[in-house]
Amino acid sequence: MQIGIVGLGRMGMNMARRWLQGGHQVVAYDLAENNVKEIENEGAYGARSLGELVEKLKPPRTVWLMLPAGKAVDESIKTFSDMLSSGDILIDGGNSYYKDDMKRAEMLAPKGIHYMDIGVSGGIWGLKAGYCMMVGGNKTDFKHLEPLFKTLAPKDGYLYCGATGAGHFVKMVHNGIEYAMMQAYAEGFDILKASPYSQQLNFQAVSHLWNQGSVIRSWLLELLESAFEKDPELKTIKGYVEDSGEGRWTVEQAIDTAVPATTIAHALFTRFRSRKEDCFSDKILAALRHEFGGHAVVKK
Questions:
Q1: Are 204 and 221 in contact (CB under 8 A)?
Q2: Cα–Cα dist 116/31, whole Å
Q3: Could you tell me which residues come within 8 angstroms of residue 107 by beta carbon, excluding any fewer than 6 positions away?
Q4: What is the pLDDT along the chain (300 residues), one digit of tens a residue?
Q5: Pairing state between β 2-6 and 45-46
Q6: Candidate list 78, 139, 178, 276, residue with the active-site label
Q7: DSSP secondary structure letter of residue 44
Q8: How many other CB atoms sit within 10 Å of the CB of residue 205?
């Protein structure tokens, strides 16, 4: 299939590569010219503007946005609303708020432009391991685009979740759970560090051990082992942890529906506190975000 992608960042670039490896034709645009040249050298068709990207796609077109949620997505959708034609499909593959999806779909509908929201998880490891995708929108469009999903995902790694907004809603909750899981690891290792056995314990070895059949084994724990291998006590980073929106939205949704999501809320509030203090558990969170998603860490 032919696919246009806008945004060649940590995830977008490797998604484009995976499509190319799967035999799809990729037309790519990014504000950074060097990113466009890089993917051109690997077989994609580069575009130097959104208009050129649209011109290089054959109708009915499919355009996939991999941009930071908020202003960048809104501006791009507004621009594409004047460039795309009836029957074209516009996808937001970032971490947008699901209620924004509904507004966007409503805005595009009079022009016949189809809108899909796809929550994508996999971070910087997606090129090798594949991407998990949660899809919202029209089911006919989902079926049409399924070859693209199959190329990106591992086996059973994508799911049609429902009408517009459903994909980003499921991804929002996914990220809320992620906050809580990371917080549990952070607190556990903080207890180990404060224990009488701290000087005898190798945190990398403990991480590795717990992944050998333990009930708390996980990919996050594998990534934590990797972080400890690079920096055994995480001395080179500050325990300053950002939040990118999904945790807040999950807690807000829990409040709206009277669901007692206390663990996720605690994990979110701990991130707020991390910006005022510098403790070991926050270093765990910062290190994990860097390992799985390539998110920047604040160096000492």
A1: no
A2: 23
A3: 77, 81
A4: 999 999 999 899 999 999 999 999 999 999 999 999 999 999 999 999 999 999 999 999 999 999 999 899 999 999 999 999 999 999 999 999 999 999 999 999 999 999 999 999 998 889 999 999 999 999 999 999 999 999 999 999 999 999 999 999 999 999 999 999 999 999 999 999 999 999 999 999 999 999 999 999 999 999 999 999 999 999 999 999 998 889 999 999 999 999 999 999 999 999 998 888 777 888 899 999 999 888 888 887
A5: unpaired
A6: 178
A7: P
A8: 12
Which ranges constitute the DSSP H helices of the chain?
12-21, 33-40, 50-56, 71-81, 98-108, 126-129, 139-152, 166-193, 203-210, 219-230, 246-256, 262-274, 280-293
Q: Tokens 């990797």: give the residue.
A: 226
229 flagged as catalytic: no
Torsion of CA 151, 114, 47, 118, to 10 degrees: -40
What does the DSSP assignment read for 50-93? Answer: HHHHHHHSPSSPEEEE---TTHHHHHHHHHHHTT--TT-EEEE-
Position 274: which residue type?
A: S
β-strands 62-65, 45-46 pairing: unpaired
Q: What is the DSSP letter of 193?
A: H
Catalytic residue among 38, 171, 238, 246: 171
Catalytic residue check, 178: yes
CA dist., res. 297 & res. 291, Å (int): 10
pTM: 0.90
Q: What span, in angstroms and rounded, lies between the C-alpha atoms of 29 and 120?
A: 19
Assign 32 to helix, strand or coil: coil
Is the alpha carbon torsion for 118, 179, 153, 43 positive or negative?
A: positive
Per-residue DSSP letter, 9: S
Amino acid identity of residue 254, one-letter, is: A
Instruction: Name the residue with tokens 């490896």.
Output: 21
Q: Which of 212, 232, 244 is nearest to 284 (CA)?
A: 232
Encoded tokens for 231: 């920096």
